[in-house]
Amino acid sequence: MVDVLSQNEIDALLAALSSGEMDAEELKKEEVQKKIRSYDFKRAVRFSKDHIRSLTRVHENFARFLTTYFSAQLRTFVQISVVQVEQLPYDEFIRSIPKMTILNIFEAEPLEGRMVLEVHPNVAFAMLDRLLGGAGSAPSKIGSLTEIETIIMEKIFSRALESLQEAWKTVIDLHPRLEALETNPQFMQIVSPNETIALISLSTKIGDTTGMINLCIPHVVIEPIMPRLSVHHWFVSQKKTRAPEEVEMLEQRVSKARLPVIAELGYSHISVQEFLNLAVGDVIALHKHTDDGLEVKVGDKVKFVAVPGTVRDKMAIQIHEIVSEGVEESDDE
Fold it and tell me: What residue ranges are annotated as transmembrane (predicted)?
């Protein structure tokens, strides 16, 4: 991992080079000699930078869907955004969350294994307060959930998982299903402690209450679809052509669509007084001559030019010209 210097560290380094405390040539030698990088086997790198970028894109959509969903349910200001996507051991994730929190354990077919949507108590109880008619503020002391509160939270977070299904549609068609709702992380063991997970942290603001929503996805769960998280797969899936069955079905549906076809003889502008004084035998002059073709409109666009006539004593038109659209003009002047 490349270390990124802060602005203060950059200024201090430039000042040391300017004053002569540090020599640029010595720094170059140290850089050449330093070829060893430490590796922590307890923090196995299972997700590449490409995978992290793809997960970030997917869950930015998830954050937008969640914002829309909670705004509609709570009828108050809600803002959710992705803060970071990182990989770490499952045990480290468990130790980083509060002892009393809301843990939504769920499965998402066709993936095998369980994932967790952890909601900070401030956020969860603010939602609960809002749903029960309050202003949406978190209590000063967080206690255990009652049966009614548990049922309400299970319902709202079970439906929130539908947003996860929408966000992952570009990668795979998931079917999330809430399995259980826990409040003590010590009782939740979905994978081994050393298993690498992808942790998606979402900054959440509900009214004046702020907190975090964390989505824990074990590597072993999404390992079968890891190739789909590569940039190459995204580009290939965008270029994928429709199957012949889909094209045939689309053509059948389009062929059954009804559109109005109108042959316009012409138009004219007269005043209201002239219209009121019209009598049998009066002639209204149209905007075109009798030898001009009729404009045939499909919908509201002119598509053909035709001439009027009769067929078996019924009025008819004969198409003489097809009106082309989007013809590029010549560059020659």
Answer: none
Closest CA to 116 of 47, 181, 211, 30: 181
Measured distance CA(177)–CA(72) in Å, rounded:
21
CA distance 306 to 318: 5
| Other C-beta atoms lying within 10 Å of the C-beta of residue 232 | 10
pLDDT at 81: 93
Instruction: Report the alpha-carbon distance of residue 327 to residue 36 in Å, rounded.
Output: 63
Residue ranges in the chain whose pLDDT is less than 70: 1-8, 19-44, 231-243, 325-333
Sign of CA dihedral 289, 292, 293, 295: negative
Is the bond preceding residue 98 a cis peptide, omega within 30 degrees?
no
Give the pLDDT confidence of 21-56 residue by residue, as tens digits.
666 666 665 555 555 666 555 666 778 888 888 889
Closest listed residue to residue 163, CA positions, set 73, 80, 68, 53: 68
Bridge partners, 68 (sequence order) = none
Closest to 155 measured CA to CA, from 133, 186, 124 = 124
